[in-house]
Structures are given as C-alpha cells and as structure tokens.
Amino acid sequence: MSPVRIDSHQPTCLLYRDLHGKKPETVVEAKGSYVYLDDGRKILDACAGAAVASIGHGDQRVIQAVTAQMTTLSYHHTSRLTNSAAERLGHMLVGDRPGGLSHAIFLSSGSEANESAIKLARQYFVELGESERVHIISRNNSYHGNSIGCVSLTGIPSRRRHFEPILMQHTSRVSPCYPYRYKTEGESDEAYAQRLADELEVEILRVGEKKVAAFFAETVGGAAAGNLTPVPGYFKAIRKVCDKYGVLLVLDEIMCGMGRTGKMHAWEWEGVVPDIETIGKGLNGGYQALSAVLISQRVVDGLKKGSGAFANGQTFQCHPAAAAAGVAVMSIFESDDIVITCAKRGAELRQKLVENLGDHPNVGEIRGRGLFLSIEFVKDRETKATFSKGLPIAAMLDNAIFDRGVSVYSGFGKGTADGVVGDHILFSPPLNISSSEIDELVQAVKEGVDEVFGSQA
Ligand code: PLP
User: Fold this and answer.
1) Mutation test of ligand 1: which of 15, 107, 111, 372 has the most ligand atoms closer than 8 Å to its C-beta?
2) How far does the centroid of ligand 1 lie from the alpha carbon of residue 255, in Å?
3) Which strand (E) or helix (H) includes residue 364?
4) How far is the centre of ligand 1, averaged over its atoms, from the C-alpha of 220 (Å)?
5) Residue (of 279, 235, 275) closest to 256 by Cα position
6) Nearest alpha carbon, ligand 1 atom 9
7) Whose CA is nearest to atom 6 of ligand 1?
8) What's the CA-to-centroid distance between 104 and ligand 1, angstroms?
9) Structure confidence at residue 21 as a pLDDT band (50, 70, 90)
10) Which of 22, 33, 147 is nearest to 435 (CA)?
11) Contact in structure between 66 and 288 (CB atoms under 8 Å)
C-alpha cells in the first residue's frame, strides 16, 4: 500500500495507493452504477466507491432535496440550535423500542463516528462513577478508520506501523471470527463461536473485570481481510460475555450497515442489538459527507444520570445539507425497496461468482452477505497458502478487472501474526445494481482472474 510516487505531478498524489504502478485516473461524472473518466472510459462502480453509493450515482431526487436544503439553510452551528432535516433523519433511524437504539448524533466521516463512540463509551462509565473503565478491546483483522483512536482499535499491522508509539494505551485485540482460516477441522460453528467468546472473556479478566469499557467489532468485517462473516451464534456468545462484565458492545457498521447485507443493520442477522452502533458511507450514498452514532437508551440513561450531555461538539455535526441528503436517501430506500433489492441481487451475484469462479484453483473462499462479498485468493486451495509477499495479486486483479471497465475494491493480504492473510477483492456495488450489470461485473472478474492466473498459477 505505498503511495503514488512523490514526484508525481498530481498535488494530491500522497493520498493514493500505487496499484502496481498505476496512477489514479480522473473521474468527471457518475450516473447510476457507472463512473466516467476524463479519457472517455465508462467504469461499472462495483464497489460503490468504498461501499458508499448505496442508491447509485446522480439520483435527481437526492440532488433536488440537497439543493432545496442549501437554498433555505446551508449551515448553522449546533451548540444550541438544531434543524428539521437532522431531527427528521434521527427519527428515521432510531425509535423508542425498549432495549433498542434511541438517539443519534450526526457527524461527517466514519472515523469521527468511531472516535465519538470511543469517547461516548468512556464518558458513560465516568458518569456512572466507574472511572476505572478505560480499556477497549477490538479484533485483529479489523478496520475502524484513520484517526488515532480508530487506528488504535484497527487490527491491520500496516495501518498501525508508523503510529504505534502514539496510539491509545488502553487497547488490546482478540481474534476475529474468520472460519475459513481459523475454525479447526471438525469444530462446529457453535464451538468455534464459544471459543472466540471465551477468548474475549479471558482478555477481559486479564485486563481487569471492571476495567473494560467496550468491545468494538465490525458486524461483518469489511476491508481488512475481505468480508469476514460471523458464524451463527458468534455475536450472541459475544453479547453474553459483554453483559456478564458490563462491557458495552459497539458495532461498527460504517461499511456493512445501511442495507448492504440485505438487512438494514447487519446485526439484525445476529439476534443482538448493540449498545452503540456507528454508520456512515451508504447512509446517504455519498451525496454529502455524513456518518452517525446510534445510541441505546442504556447509554443515554447513563449520561442523564451524570452531566446530561455528551462532551463532543463538532463544527459540522448535524449539517443540514448532509442530513437532507440522508433523509432523501432513506426515503428512497423505502420507496424503491432498496434493502429487499439488495438481498435479491446479492444472492444473484454470489451464485454467479460461485458458478464462474467457485472451482478455480486459486479461489480460496467466496464469502459475505447481501451485496457485500469478497473472494479470497490463495496460491494453493488445499493448503490455503497465500501468495509470496512480493507478488501483489490483489493489485494485479484490481488492474486487470479495471482494464475491463469494472472497479472493485482490493485488499493486499499476506500472512502476519495478527493481521491480514489472503489477497482478496471485494464487491460492494450500488444496492440497486441491475441483473445485467451483475453479468457485466462477473464477466470482467472472470476475464481478469483468467488474465492474472493464466500467467501466475
Ligand atoms: N469503519 C469501517 C468498518 C470502515 O470500513 C471505514 C472506512 O472504510 C471506517 C470505519 C472509516 O470511515 P471513514 O473513511 O469515513 O472515516
């Protein structure tokens, strides 16, 4: 994941990955499931940016809603004022179901949402008089964002490497739920889930029974190792351990939430409700920058017992234009049955990937939920051996598929003690992608895989 060379003529060059020698192309327009480049190429956006463009690009209904909002109120500060778009979006996302998520705060990025969730978990326990709860446990092979708090929780060694000495002190990580690699021969899903829950319990006890504030996890792991999908019962077992020790369960659904797995929240598959949930990306489909922290009544009640307010003001929080985009996108989710469509198209994409690539000697696993799927590639299907470090298979696949007019999200794996393993490519197209676009996607992937492995297998 090296940046584009510093001598590049592009002023923004330091922000981009060098995909095996390729410089970033310039996108000039986007419509539906496609983005258009300045050299005239039309690219199927099979990763919706980074799982962002949930309803596709250029939807006039959202553009009109944002324009109307900008015309009447483009910004105000929120220390004492609110706006109707933010309040309306809040009502669309949280309700007053007992035990459910009851409050929302709106920010701009996923990293800010997770950073706020860290602070919220900490403040909750301070308000309750449990100030010794300073520790947060997360998982290996996780990604939680770019800020120092988020990097402190992230379980990808290359993301942590430069910053290790300045990361948060009171954090640690346990194993992810990654059955393809770590469920042992003959072990049932139930036993595997329990083994991981036991590991969490051991870690809580190691840190100190009353010292852990929260356990952070992506409900379905996203970019780190490619759609790590929990085995049945995993989150129930985890929730039980959290409850036993009073630890808050924080689910990061920045990438996997908002319909992407075929349910509005990925935790709906798991039979648990988090104490805090973070969402972003697909929440308003990229029409504005928007993320949110959804908060349970339990946490709100804790704050009410103490100071009564979350110490977390930000300049652009509850931004009216971003909230208006969120309201418009969530309305389209309802009117266009976006989540149901995602579930159907997700099943279709999975089936076509399995039909076309399921038996390929370098395909280790096709996994994920809804329209949130990955293929993990291996050197050897039997041993699950990864490719050698110097061989950037994911980047080569990314390029080969892009050359065929389809953009995917690639993850450069390789074995490390507590990090990423196999190379993978991830698919997270708009949730309303059509069946013919899925055919186009699968065809490009198949041809890209043939090109790369034709010479490498
Ligand atoms: N959490 C997860 C699971 C993510 O996938 C991401 C971004 O990819 C983030 C947090 C950070 O979000 P952002 O890039 O909007 O700060």
Assistant:
1) 111
2) 6
3) strand 363-369
4) 13
5) 279
6) 145
7) 145
8) 18
9) low
10) 33
11) yes
- The model's pLDDT over 291-320, given as tens digits with 9 standing for 90+, comes to 999 999 999 999 999 999 999 999 999 999
pLDDT digits (tens, 9 = 90+) for 25-53: 899 999 999 999 999 999 999 999 999 99
Per-residue DSSP letter, 223: T
Query: Exposure of 382 by Cβ count < 10 A (0-12 exposed, 13-18 middle, 19+ buried)?
Result: exposed
Q: How far is the CA of 191 from the centre of ligand 1 (A)?
A: 31
48: alpha, beta or left, given left = phi > 0 and alpha = psi -120 to 50?
Answer: left
Tokens of 201: 């319990």
Around ligand 1, the residues with Cβ closer than 6 Å are 50, 109-111, 114, 143-146, 218, 222-223, 252, 254-255, 280
At residue 9 the predicted structure's pLDDT band, cuts being 50, 70 and 90, is: low
323 φ, ψ to 5°?
A: -65, -40
Query: Of all residues in the chain, what percent carry a pLDDT higher than 90?
Result: 86
Mutate to test the pocket of ligand 1, among 146, 151, 254, 420 (most ligand atoms within 8 A of CB): 254
Q: Cα(297)–Cα(101) distance, rounded to whole angstroms?
A: 6
254: CA distance to ligand 1 center in Å?
6
The Cα 376–Cα 356 span in angstroms is 15
Please, which residues bridge with residue 296 across strands? 101
Instruction: Report the pLDDT value the prediction gives residue 3, as an integer from 0 to 100.
Output: 40
Angle 145-148-151 from CA coordinates, rounded to 5°: 45
Angle at CA 9, nearest 5°, toward 5 and 11? Answer: 90
- Provide the token pair at 456: 């490498």
> How far is 137 from 148, CA to CA, in rounded Å?
15
Give per-residue pLDDT as tens, 373-416.
Answer: 999 999 999 999 998 888 889 989 999 999 999 999 987 666 56
To test the pocket of ligand 1, the residue of 139, 141, 144 to mutate (highest count of ligand atoms within 8 Å of its CB) is: 144
Distance 144 CA to ligand 1 centre (A): 6
3-state SS class at 304:
helix
Quickly tell me which residue has 């996203």 as its tokens.
Answer: 222
Ligand 1 atom with minimal separation from the 255 CA: 5
Which of 355, 410, 413, 362 shows the shortest CA–CA distance to 383?
362
Q: From CA 120, how far away is CA 221, in angstroms rounded?
A: 22
Q: Whose CA is nearest to atom 7 of ligand 1?
A: 145
Alpha helices in 6-109 (DSSP H): 48-51, 60-72, 84-93
